[in-house]
Structure formats: C-alpha cells, structure tokens
Amino acid sequence: MQVFKNLLAFLLAIFMSLSGYTQKQSFDVVSFTAPKGWQQQQNDGGVQLSVTDKKTGAYAIALITKATGTNAAAVENFNTDWIKLVKASVQVN
Questions:
Q1: What is the C-alpha to C-alpha distance for residues 47 and 40, in angstroms, rounded to an integer?
Q2: DSSP H/E element including 80
Q3: Average pLDDT in the chain
Q4: How far is residue 87's CA from residue 93's CA, in Å, rounded to a whole number?
Q5: CA angle 22-26-31, nearest 5°?
Q6: How many angstroms separate the CA atoms of 67 and 77, rounded?
Q7: Tens digit of pLDDT for each residue in 49-91?
Q8: What is 4-66 written as a DSSP string?
Q9: CA atoms within 13 A on the CB side of 65
Q10: How far is residue 28's CA from residue 65's CA, in Å, rounded to a whole number?
Q11: SS3 state of residue 86
C-alpha cells in the first residue's frame, strides 16, 4: 500500500510540474494556450496570435474577439466578422 501511495504522490508531482509549462490564458469567455513560437498582441477588443515562417514569408493569424450578443445565424456572424476583421486588414485571394 505504501508503494502505491508513493507512486501516486510521484505521478501527482509530475503532473503538477508539467501543467506549469502550459501557459493557459483567458480572454472574455475563452480559455486558450498559445502555441509555442507564436507572438501575442492583446488589446481591449481581442487577442491576436501570429506566427511567421522567416524562410518563405508565409504567416498565420488567429483572432480571439470579445463575445457579442446577436440574433443572426452563426454563418452570418462569421461572414460579417470576416469582412470587418480580415478583409479590411489584409488582401485575401
């Protein structure tokens, strides 16, 4: 029984130390962990996560915005935000 308790204590200590490496963050109603190597910018309106491949110039951006109330369908909300947040900022082909 003592061996089991020691093993359980050891596994618990390992789990607790590993959870310290993941920087779980929250913004509005969303909890997230930024991927390793991604840059983060935060302001009142949201969080922008981005990464750039320096060799090719390719990049990716993820936006986390504040939740808003709406009566529209999800696809309509997505299309409205896509135009406002993405198309207005970058050239989309």
A1: 7
A2: helix 74-81
A3: 82
A4: 10
A5: 70
A6: 11
A7: 999 999 999 999 898 988 888 999 999 999 998 888 888 887 7
A8: HHHHHHHHHHHHHHHHTTS-EEEETTEEEEPPTT-EEEEETTEEEEEEE-TTT--EEEEEEE-
A9: 12
A10: 8
A11: helix
Give the tokens for residue 39.
């840059």
Residue tagged 């935060």 (tokens):
42
- Dihedral pair phi/psi, residue 64, rounded to 5°: -120, 115
Q: What is the pTM of this model?
A: 0.63
Our CA angle for 91, 51, 49, nearest 5°, is 85
Domain ranges of the chain: 25-93
Tens of pLDDT along 9-46? 666 666 555 555 567 889 999 999 989 999 999 988 89
